[in-house]
Amino acid sequence: xxxxxxxxxxxxxxxxxxxSHGSPYDRGSADAYYGRLSDPHYYIGGSIVGIRCECETExxxxxxxxxxxxQIMYGDKKEW
Length: 80
Hints:
Elements: H1 24-33, E1 41-44, E2 51-54, H2 58-74
Helix pairs in contact: 1-2
């Protein structure tokens, strides 16, 4: 598994996913950052304060997985 498989190439001009606060991509990245297991979800109205929804469409699942994979491969991890 690599980030390119999920539609993200480091150094690319544009990110193909919505990365706004609470989006599936954002939540996938946050779950990986905090060392949580994959749990595809997103928030309507922003993380934690909004309404939690499960990812149901292929687009939502793909965005969540891409955020999770990117964070594992290129991001840092919360140090407790």
